[in-house]
Design goal:
- This is Alginate lyase domain-containing protein.
- GO terms for molecular function: lyase activity.
- Keywords: Lyase, Signal.
- The protein is an all-alpha fold.
- The protein has helices spanning about 1-20, 50-75, 85-95, 105-110, 115-130, 135-155, 165-180, 185-200, 220-235, 250-260, 265-270, 290-300, 300-310, 325; strands at about 30, 100-105, 315, 320.
- It has a single domain (about 25-325), classed as Glycosyltransferase, CATH 1.50.10.100.
- Strand 3 and strand 4 (about 320) form a beta hairpin.
- Helix 5 runs antiparallel to helix 6, helix 7 packs parallel to helix 9 (about 220-235) and helix 9 (about 220-235) crosses helix 10 (about 250-260).
- The longest helix has 29 residues, at about 50-75.
- Mean pLDDT is about 90; it is low at about 1-20.
Length: about 325
């Protein structure tokens, strides 16, 4: 009897301990109405510091949630399957509250795609270890509503330039990730078309014209567009061979980004500006290269391998967490 009681006590303590590992869930955000981070009318995309602070404050709870669930997903993949409970509970809290249901500015609608993608990609990792959790229908229905609102926005109200750029690519990844959870072929089809639409804009040298309008930040934004495009392509394999579209435009775009990180000379030649990674204003981070792990899983390449090796492990919460852990 003492042995049985001791076992029960240890089980309870273990459950409490596991529960204590869960980060506090930020309160759900319903309304987002922030404006642009940038000074109006500047071709170099100059940051308006006050506006940028306002954007960060509005998005802080959303991004905290995404970082938390990405951390839970990493723990699950590292063997702490109990942490799936943390991630599912956090997503369910926001889902039950109908969070992010009132995006009241175009800027909010333009930039929410990467956040939906991050949540859905983390959810895919929880689903692997807790496929029968009864909260999935609520979470899936919520993510579906969010991505359907994105689909409507991008097809009707989004600015023309943005339709060909990185923000559309992130919305496409959100659709791919959510459709993987739900099996919704309409969402998957729209997401595939969106990814192709952006990837096929790549010039013969691989530069993405919309991102090359960003002055000294062009190479930074090329990376920011390639990340969701590559992740979408890998997740869509083998249903769709996105890499073969438009004469291999996605490969060209990825190679341009990796190649130009050596000197920035190609982006500088296009824009007439020394790139931010080379003028001292921005430092390359591992999160900007996290997509390379997925790329290497289907496209082995020594140049890509050499670049990312110096930064491993590489993680990006908007790609669902630690990509070295996921793909290697």
């Amino acid at each position: 009897m003492k042995t049985v009681l001791a076992g029960l006590v240890m089980a309870v303590l273990g459950a409490v301990s596991a529960s204590a590992q869960c980060a506090a869930v930020p309160e759900p955000v319903h309304v987002l109405a922030y404006g642009s981070r940038y000074v109006e009318g500047t071709d170099s995309r100059k940051i308006d510091k006050a506006a940028s602070r306002a954007v960060n404050e509005a998005l802080d709870p959303v991004d905290e949630l995404i970082r938390n669930v990405a951390s839970d997903a990493d723990a699950v993949d590292a063997g702490r399957t109990d942490r799936a409970e943390c991630g599912i509970a956090a997503l369910n809290k926001w889902a039950e509250a109908g969070a992010l249901g009132a995006l009241q500015s175009d800027t909010a609608r333009l930039t929410i795609g990467s956040r939906i993608a991050g949540m859905a990609l983390a959810a895919r990792r929880f689903r692997d270890v807790a496929p029968a959790d009864p909260r999935w229908p609520v979470v899936e229905a919520w993510l579906t509503r969010l991505v359907e609102a994105q689909r409507d926005f991008w097809e009707t109200d989004a600015p023309d330039g943005a339709r060909r750029g990185n923000l559309r690519a992130w919305a496409a990844l959100a659709g791919v990730a959510v459709s993987d959870l739900t099996g919704d072929e309409i969402t998957r089809g729209w997401a595939t078309w969106s990814a192709v639409h952006v990837a096929c804009t790549a010039a013969p040298d691989g530069s993405l014209p919309q991102e090359m309008t960003r002055g000294k930040h062009a190479l930074h934004y090329q990376l920011h567009a390639v990340a969701p495009l590559v992740m979408s392509a890998v997740l869509l394999t083998p249903r769709v061979d996105l890499f073969s579209e438009c004469g291999g435009s996605l490969d060209r775009a990825a190679r341009f980004a990796v190649r130009d990180l050596a000197t920035g000379a190609e982006s500088e030649a296009i824009t007439g500006r020394v790139q931010s990674f080379f003028d001292g204003s921005r430092e390359l981070g591992g999160f900007q290269l996290a997509w390379i792990e997925a790329y290497l899983s289907v496209r082995p390449d020594p140049d890509f391998e050499a670049l990312v090796a110096a930064f491993r492990p590489v993680s990006n919460s908007k790609l669902g967490g630690n990509q070295t852990l996921v793909w290697r």
